[in-house]
Amino acid sequence: MKYQVMVKMLMLLLSRRKVTAKEIADRYSISTRSVYRYVEELNVSGIPIDVVRGRFGGLCIADTFKLPVGYFTKAEYDAAIQAVKAMLMQVNDENTASVLEKLTRQMKNERRDTPVCGNIIVDGSAWCEGKRFSEKMQLCERAVDEGLRLDIDYISRGGEHTRRIIDPHVLIFKSNVWYVYAFCHTKQSFRTFKIGRIKEISYTGETFVKKQFKREDIPLDFSDTVSKKTRVTLKIDPENLPDVEEWLGVDAVEPRGKHLYAEIDIPDNEALVNKILSFGGSVKVVAPTELKEKVKKAAKNIYDNL
């Protein structure tokens, strides 16, 4: 009840800019003492409300104060849009149609401008592809939001180009990589596509109805379905600890005596060998022996080709 009244007080002040404490108390059936206490709490939260004493005084809010652009929740936008649509069906008025168009456009713009993770900005692009990656992300996000079918040119890990028509259902962020989980019309089944491997992307002009699925239906171990995982023990040079933590996560590294080690289950493939080599000898393979030999062989090939 308390916070509902505080919100109503704020909305009243925004519409009138000055209201007496008695009027608020009478309107919401609370005491004037409670009104002043609520004003103090609103001030603490960053809303500038002044108390002006005297005959023509009252509670005043600065003319420059505005609610944040994203104040409306999705549910509130939907309710407002439905209400205006209902009015437009009864009264075919140009101004009402304009209101509906602006509300709809504003909701879509806010949803695209807001990072996927709410208050967290996440950029899954490589350093050299920021703008291009962001464009692909925006297309995928809008397609997920509005049920828009996509035409993509997808490059597999082996370099094969395939054209796919997909119905994107949800975006996934895992291991610092963005994916789109979509129904693929080519394979007639759900597939997970790495957005960084989409070469070209465009809307087909068609819409689709999302199929029902649960979170557990999504195979979140899709990052490497070909290579088996193996238990790997690495010895880490402290100077390269920040880079290793970014790769494996801070919880994977632990001190053992005077040295740092990481013991993890990870796909044993060429990408792992290349990653270990990228640290220039500051990350050493302790186990298994097979991986150690692979790294030695790859390092020798690099040396022989210099």
Mean pLDDT: 79
Q: What order do the strands of the largest sheet run in, or round the barrel if closed?
A: 7-6-5-4-8
The SS-based structural class is alpha+beta
Counted beta strands:
12
Classified by CATH, the class of the largest domain is: Mainly Beta
The share of residues in helices is: 25-40%
Question: What is the overall shape?
Answer: flat
**Main sheet attributes: strand count, strand direction, barrel closure:** 5 strands, antiparallel
User: Whole-Å distance between the termini?
Assistant: 74 Å
Q: Tell me which CATH architecture of the largest domain applies here.
A: Roll
Low-confidence stretches at least 5 residues in length (pLDDT < 50)? 112-120
Description of the structure:
This protein has 306 residues and is α+β, with helices and mostly antiparallel strands. The chain folds into four domains: 2-61, Winged helix-like DNA-binding domain superfamily/Winged helix DNA-binding domain (Arc Repressor Mutant, subunit A, Orthogonal Bundle), CATH 1.10.10; 74-113; 132-217, SH3 type barrels, CATH 2.30.30; 229-304, Alpha-Beta Plaits (2-Layer Sandwich), CATH 3.30.70. It has nine helices and twelve strands. The strands form three sheets. A five-stranded antiparallel β-sheet has the order 7-6-5-4-8, with helices on one face. Strands 10-11-9-12 form a four-stranded antiparallel β-sheet. Strands 1-3-2 form a three-stranded antiparallel β-sheet. A hairpin with a 2-residue loop joins strand 5 and strand 6. The protein starts with a helix and ends with a helix.
